[in-house]
Each structure stands twice: as C-alpha cells, then as structure tokens.
User: What shape does this take?
Amino acid sequence: MKLYNSLTKRVDTFKENESGKIAMYTCGPTVYHFAHIGNLRSYLMEDVLEKLLRYSGYDVKRVMNITDVGHLSSDADTGEDKMLKGAKREHKTIMEIAKFYTDAFFNDCKDLNIKTPDVVEPATNCIDEFIHMIEVLLEKGYAYQAGENVYFDTSKLKEYYVFGNQSEDELMVGVRDDVTEDSNKKNKNDFVLWFTKSKFEDQALKWDSPWGVGYPGWHIECSCISIKHLGEYMDIHCGGVDNMFPHHTNEIAQSEAFLGHKWCNFWFHVHHLNDETGKMSKSKGEFLTVSLLKEKGYDPLAYRFFALQSHYRKPLTFSYEGLDQAALTYKKLKNKIAAIDVAGDIDAAKVTEYHDKFAEAVGNDVNTAMGITMIYDVLKDDELNGATKLAVLNDFDKVLGLNLTVKEEMETSSEDAELVAYVEAKIEERKNAKKAKDFQLADAIRNELADKGIIIEDTREGVKWHRA
Ligand SMILES: [Zn+2]
Assistant: This one.
C-alpha cells in the first residue's frame, strides 16, 4: 500500500511498526457546535483509509479524542474558549453542550456510514494523564511556568517545523491570531500546556494540579490520549490540513520530548472542502450540515459519493449543482446494481481477483475515484454472472461504504413521509379555512386532494384520510 506522508512530503510505501498491526489516531471534534460537511470530509476520508487498511489485511486499532475542554477559538491558544462560547450561546452547561454535540457528531457519522473508532475518549476523562505528561516535560526541561500557566518551550527542540518547507507565513494561515500576543511566552511558538491563571476566570471546568486549579491546553490532549491507548509508537496520525500547524506540530513536539524518540511515522492530512466563499466555516455563508442536506431531500450517502469522487489531497469545492450531479450519478448506479439478475453461483476466484485489483488501485494513496471507476468495470464485465458481480460489489463496499447493494426501501418510505406531511398540511389548511368560514377554500382543498387520489372524511374523531 502507498500513502502520501506529510512528514516526507511524498508518496511512500506504507510500513507499519509491528507486522500486520496498525495503531491509528484521529483528532476528534471539538463538541461545541454541529460539524459542517467540510469537517466531515476529513472524517469520511479517514474512514475510507481505515477500512482500506482492514481490507488489505491489517489489524487496525483506531483511537479518537473528543475535545470537551480547552480548545480556544484560535488554534494558537488565544481567543475565547469554544466550549464556553457554545454553552453561553445556548444557555446550557458545558457538559450538556458536550453531550449534545457529541451525539450529533456520531449521528452525522452514522448517516455517512463512518465507522466509530475502536476507542473514543473525551479529554475530560484524562486529566491525570495530562498532568503526568506535563510534569515529565517540566522535569526534562521542555516546559516552564510563567504568569501561572505552564508552557512548552519550543526553543529546546532540534526541529520545530516538522512539516517542512512551508514558510512560517504559510503555516500561520491556520492561526487566526486576532488576540494580542501572550507576553508570558519566551518564544513566539511556545504554547500552553496548562492554564491556571488566564483571562478566562469564568472557565467552568477546572481541576486541581501541581500548578494550581486550571485546565489543560488543547494540544496535550491528543498526545496523551493516543499514547495512553496506542503506546509509544504510532503508525498513522490523521486530521485535516488545517490541523498541521500549530496542532500537529505541537503534538509532535510534546510527544517526542516526552517519549525521547520518534513517535509517529505517517501523517495523513485531508484537504479542505471549500464553498463559493472560500474555506467553509461555521460563521460565514450557509452553515452546511448533514441535517441541512437531509432537510433539502439529499441522501447523506450522495454526499459521501460526492466526496469519494475526488482525491483527499485536493481541495474540493462544494456546490449544490455538484451535489445534484453526484446524487443523480449515485442513484443511477444503484438502480443499475438493483437490476442485476442474481443468477448463477459466485465465482470465488473472480471475487479474489477483483479484491486484489481493488486493494492495489485504491491502495495507491487512497484513490477513491479509481474505486468508483472499478464499480463500472465490474458492471460491464461480461465474464461475471450476476451473483459474482454482487459479491464483488459487496466486497468493494467494505471500503467505499456506499450501500451499493442495499435496495432502496428508504426511498418509498421517504416518499410516504412526504405524502403524509403534504396531506396533513392540507388538512390543517382546510381546518383553518373552515374556522374562518371560507368554505369555498375548504372545498377547493378537498378537491385538490381528491385529484391526487386522497379522500378525506370528517368524523367525530376529527379528519381522517385514505387513498382512493
Ligand atoms: Zn489532535
């Protein structure tokens, strides 16, 4: 398998630390708001990567954190606390906000066929581990206390900009530094490990620590949680490109200073989903969520299909025209598969042959577009009988997650739901018309429904309806 590695900046042949086993980590969501479909593009492509590794025979253990404390509105430890902001906005406690948006995130994942990682750990579960790691960093001289906070000292590292040749300005693009520089820092890239005294006096979640009552910085979370569950050596660390700096850069700094050796070999970064205004964000333009797409009548898997059509290392621009196109192609594809005549016995040799071909093609740096092309190759292959075609497509779908062979019962039921909603709205309208003594309108509504084959009856229990 070949994989682009942000550390070496080239496509490398993938090599795991322990034969056949993969330790994989994903930076999880900060649960203060809904995820937009741009955030979800990363989770979706990481899901494909995980499934592809399993498909290729690896035993994968994947860990993800949930950030429910300590993430400020700028990734560089400045600005407002994101969780507190969410709690204030919705007049809820921080833990209520965390619970609500964690559930919402996993519901979105479910809709998009994204598997839940083997371990999901909220940051607030691991305060003791954070404190321990910070103590070790202080002992080793990689950290210092200033202004009652604890900071990581980036000047103690041999190399800080591990992701290489980008200029500092480019790296800083991800950092919305709208707040004055923290004068406690010895070097401008130093970052907070533990906040004790800060401008957030109203921070709701605080814990005792050797440095006073406070809360952890954001970056320390991922270092601790990954080492806790995956040990000292990691194979693949995933995230969006905007995590590369400062978040992942700081994770590497802390983890390697703490461990005293190289930590993770492969860094997998998914590029942005843009909208017409540029980079998608929660604050500008339409707030594009999975629920919004569903409300507009899209199958969430049409979005998955849309994302899989392009490569994860290219920025992708979202438009409704693009999504409509993908939804149509996806629907036609599913109809073609549904029409396959499932005759004959499965040709196991052919299934294996296609399995290996698919693993190689998609295994070339997660080439999902090639995976989709291969679906059409299978459909066109005259040497395969119907049963074998379906078996091959089911096998591909272990990676693609497109419910390729699942028949559309959903569609009828969503049509039914639409009809029910329509009829009920009309009955309500008619009731109001009668109340207003507009019997002409009431009759017109009854006739309109009758034209559509819906008969309504006024009964003692209220209005009832049935199909003609
Ligand atoms: Zn992280």
